[in-house]
Specification:
mainly beta, 1 helix, disordered N terminus
Length: 744
């Protein structure tokens, strides 16, 4: 019987709820009588609201000052505010049943802002959407204030803050404190979808936070709810901004997801705002859609000259962009990061590698834009950082605050890639701590600007370093590295290091011409594994031929291979000074491999140049184009049956004595013998009558060759006849003569 009574009671309550629902009204505020919500005449659609009604506050209300003095009103279906300038007081604490519990619209460009505060318990299971269409240029934190520390907003399942109008502002139009319930398949999830939302206090929810669009500002280390894993972490999508207005955030898992990745569309953003420096301790994942046009990109903004560090590992496949609205916002990665994209440092931003080595992925390319800075070893000595290359026109700086030591930036260049850095490189504390640049791998790194760093520049592997500005750094080459320079460039010195195999120094780069200076005492030192390579096409240094110029104390070329590419040959007698040893009377030490003093090169046929280690001002390495071998003149004649009649053939030009004089391609009866610098022809002239051709071949002492086509004019000459009368006595009978006649 007791169970039957309970069942009847439940059925009665359900019936009452159905009746209440059936008679729920939409109450529209007019404020015609007073500001009191219990005032008769202040509403249309109802006398005064009761539980279950929907409340509407229109822009057309007579009064927008509202005082809730309805203590009995504890539950409403929904609240709609369609207007600006509302000021509400009293206790607005309701259970709200609608899936869209509150909607607010206000164009702040045409009306005063709202000042509204609600404490809401969003009852009924299922997703909820709070719609706030406040738009225009907000200049202060305005709009809806939802929840408080004592009575936060509570919900079940997914809670979405939706704004359909764009807001040109950095100020939030929703200020919210959140609690939670624990039921529902997607319990406690929060979605920001447009507008500007502010979580000023610690929140208790334990689900995922997604900034799909718009801006979420957090003012407390616990604003994002529970910490500790990806399931209750935060995801910022393309067009979304997470603003950190608090110093330190604990182990919050953050994903910056460039899910749209379209040209001209800003990717997901984590920003400090003007107050949020400090540390983000949790991991950050950079993800996104590969569009085929642009790689996905995530942005970290460090505002107001603040400093932000990230203690968690930054991983994922997207690019990382670091920006700052004003100089200089500093970003310091503290973990050994693994993200697979590039790293761009924007204008006014500063990327700082602090007290621990290898913080950036060694596959990332760092692009320091003009006005941006990349600081290595900030206030800490002996740091090593490895990246895949450096680009841009910003500043690369090593500054350890004066502590002794040496820090290193290593560039592991991938094959087939070329990176161009046109900004300065310096180490202001070089007397105590120098920056060393290590270039290896198999790509090309261009340093296009003047630099002042004082440490060494090591180029190894099969990497190419192209120096186009001035530098005091001493270059050391190993393995099969290539050092290039264009136009007028300089280095401290050039020397080999252990492990060199076939390294090359090319003062003019590839396809150009240049003059590479070395300005410190180390000078130029080459060996069998590190050698210079010059291009020559004229006699103007840096314009049409390459030169190594040194003000150092040493030039040593002992046993080093010499490569000279003659793109255009010089005129006879013209000189190029390939090494200009400009310091004192010291001679060049040693000679190039197989190039002794006075040697002729290149080997093989063709024009020749004479090498000198005492050219120029007496201790420079020069090449002088020697005169070619000239043609032979003079008549060569012959009569059939007689010895050839010719002067001794004497070529001119070239370098005497001639190494070889010979004939080829002529008649079989012709031969020649060299006598000193001449060729003597011999042989009994044979048929036919007329012109017979042959070739004179000359090789001079320099190895130059000459081939000259010549001719012999051959005639029959006079013939002696003897009478034999063996046929008859007739003169004209041929058989009466020996040989057959008659004579003519």
């Amino acid at each position: 019987m007791r169970h039957m009574k309970c069942l009847k009671t439940v059925l009665a309550l359900v019936a009452l709820l159905n009746v209440a629902s059936a008679f729920a009204a939409t109450c529209t505020w007019t404020g015609s009588v007073s500001s009191a919500m219990n005032g008769i005449g202040n509403w249309t659609g109802c006398s005064v609201p009761v539980n279950g009604d929907s409340l509407v506050f229109p822009d057309s209300a007579f009064s927008k000052t509202v005082n809730n003095n309805l203590g009995s009103l504890t539950s409403v279906n929904s609240i709609v505010i369609n207007g600006c300038g509302y000021a509400m007081s009293g206790v607005f604490g309701f259970d709200v049943t609608s899936p869209v519990p509150i909607t607010a619209s206000c164009d702040v460009t045409t009306g005063a802002v709202n000042s509204i505060s609600f404490d809401l318990n969003l009852t009924n299971p299922g997703p909820k959407e709070i719609r706030n269409n406040t738009f225009g240029a907000l200049t202060q934190e305005v709009g809806l204030y939802l929840g408080s520390n004592l009575k936060p907003v509570r919900w079940d399942n997914k809670l979405t803050f939706k704004q359909t109008q764009s807001t040109a502002t950095q100020y939030p139009s929703l200020i919210i404190t959140l609690s939670e319930t624990t039921s529902g398949a997607n319990a406690n999830e929060v979605v920001i979808d447009g507008g500007a939302v502010y979580f000023p206090d610690a929140n208790l929810y334990a689900g995922l936070t997604t900034v799909k669009n718009g801006q979420l500002r957090i003012g407390n280390a616990g604003s994002l709810g529970a910490l500790g894993n990806a399931a209750n972490g935060t995801v910022v999508k393309t067009g979304g901004i997470l603003e950190k207005q608090v110093a330190n955030i604990g182990n919050e898992f953050l994903t910056l997801d460039d899910d749209a990745n379209a040209p001209g569309v800003r990717g997901p953003v984590l920003t400090t705002g003007v107050l949020g420096g400090g540390n983000w301790a949790g991991p950050i994942v950079l993800t996104g859609v590969v569009s085929g046009v642009l790689p996905p990109e995530a942005e970290i903004v460090v505002d107001n000259a603040l400093a932000l560090s990230v203690g968690g590992v930054i991983s994922g496949s997207a690019d990382l962009l670091i920006t700052s609205p004003v100089a200089f916002g500093s970003f310091t990665p503290q973990a050994a990061n693994t993200y697979g994209g590039s790293t761009t440092v924007g204008t006014n931003a500063r990327l700082m590698i602090g007290a621990i080595s290898e913080r950036l992925p060694n596959t990332t390319v760092v692009n320091v834009l003009a006005g941006g800075q990349f600081w290595l070893s900030a206030n800490s000595p002996n740091i090593t950082e490895t990246i895949a290359g450096i680009e841009g026109a910003g500043l690369l700086r090593m500054d350890n605050g004066g502590a002794p030591g040496q820090s290193q930036l290593a560039l592991d260049l991938p094959p087939g890639k070329t990176f161009n850095f046109s900004g300065p490189i310096n180490d202001p504390s070089a007397t105590n701590n120098k920056l060393q640049l290590n270039v290896f791998g198999s790509g090309t790194q261009i340093l296009a600007a003047n630099t002042t760093y004082a440490g060494a520049t090591n180029v190894t592997g099969s990497a190419t370093l192209d120096v186009r500005g001035t530098s005091n750094s001493a270059a050391q080459l190993g393995a099969s590295a290539i050092l290039l320079s264009d136009a007028a460039a300089s280095l401290g010195a050039i020397t080999p290091i252990a492990g060199a195999v076939s390294a090359r120094v090319r003062p003019g780069g590839v396809g150009g011409f240049g003059k590479l200076d070395t300005v410190n005492a180390g000078g130029l030192v080459f060996n069998a594994n590190v050698a210079p390579e010059f291009d020559v096409a004229g006699i103007t240094v840096g314009v049409n031929y390459d030169q190594l110029y040194t003000e150092g104390l040493t030039v040593n070329v002992s046993n080093a291979p010499l490569v000279v590419n003659f793109i255009t040959h010089l005129n006879p007698g013209e000189v190029v000074r390939l090494i200009d040893f400009n310091t004192g009377p010291s001679p060049i030490v040693g000679t190039f491999l197989s190039v002794p003093q006075g040697a002729y090169l290149p080997p093989g046929p063709g024009p020749k140049y004479q090498a000198s280690y005492t050219g120029g001002t007496g201790n420079d390495f020069t090449l002088t184009r020697i005169a070619p071998i000239s043609n032979v003149t003079g008549a060569i004649t012959g009569v059939i049956g007689q010895s050839v009649s010719a002067p001794a053939l004497a070529p001119t030009g070239g370098v005497l004595p001639y190494a070889s004089l010979s004939v080829s391609g002529g008649p079989a009866w012709l031969s020649g013998a060299q006598s000193g610098n001449t060729l003597v022809l011999s042989g009994t002239v044979g048929a036919p009558v007329g012109t017979q051709n042959f070739t004179l071949n000359v090789v001079d002492a320099a190895g130059q060759t000459g081939t000259f086509p010549l001719t012999i004019s051959v005639s029959a000459g006079a013939t002696d006849f003897s009478w034999n009368g063996s046929v008859d006595n007739n003169w004209a009978t041929p058989g009466n003569w020996t040989p057959s006649g008659p004579p003519t």
